[in-house]
Design a protein that fits this description.
By secondary structure, this protein is α/β, with parallel strands linked by helices. About 45% of the residues lie in helices and about 15% in strands. Residues about 10-30 have low confidence and may be disordered.
Amino acid sequence: MPRSIIGKAAKTLIVAATLAISFAATPSRAQKATDEVKFGLLPGLALYLPLWVAEDKGFFAEENVKPTFINVGGGGAQTMAALLGGSFDMTDLSLPALAAANEKGQDLRVIAGNHTSLSYALQVRSDLPGPVASDGYPAIMHKLRGKRVAASTIGSNSYIVMKHLLEGAGMTFNDIVLTQVQSGSSASVMMAADQLDAVLQSEPYISMLTDQLKKGRVVLDLRTKEGAASVGLDGLIYDIWLAKAPVAKEDRIIRASRALAKGIKFIQDPSTDTKYLADITRKHLKLDTPDDLLQKQVKSMIPAFRIVITRDDVRRSFTVLGIKSIPYEEVVAGLAAEE
């Protein structure tokens, strides 16, 4: 064979080999890039269980999403400011917080549900003479006049609920000694040290105060349909994931929501080991809680997790909250929307 032909054949083989190496080192076009999604999280909340499960079980990886968790101190107002300022892509707050922001000219969207029922119970010190659960609402609030009552910071979910409880009883924050706390754990420590008379609390801190520390008793449980109805909050869709409207339309956000949906499906699967869910909660919240109690807490939360929030849900919730007008055409986007 002539040398020129051999030389051309060799060059062809070299080019082919180079291209093969190049294609092997480069992801195929069908393979999606891994995109970062930043989550803004308030400290000490077991409501992030679907988020932790989605990361631990690889559901974010399946959706080519790299989650980054950013802890936000200072409560709801600071969380909202950080969201609007672009510090993270999405955070979980309440429909009242969304409505208030949009009424000020912001443009936020519900991109996923989370723990959609109310997660609060009103607890008082176990040695406080009154109120008791049998007093009922609004008498319970009347007996807290002048008492040291804790809720989270201005604009937070618990602050908004406390405001509703007071106003429904014909009271204001001036009728109590309001103590703003940064987290459920700090409120529990203060209650255990007799520095508070009452607190609006979520799990796992409700059970910690009542069952573990024996320092509190529940006088008004808003987690039950009867309790929520007694204060005029029955049917309220509350804890939701929010994003700015332009961000809500991004494909990476849809994929992150899909990973969260997989986390919720896994949590609600009857075959899922409750101990696993308790262990991952303990890991993230650094809890010193007996296994049986923590599993009980987690199990009580499971039914209320869901992703889809219909526009009818939003309209009904706004009616419950007394929000009469919506200054935007649509509020639910992406995977959260009714299909």
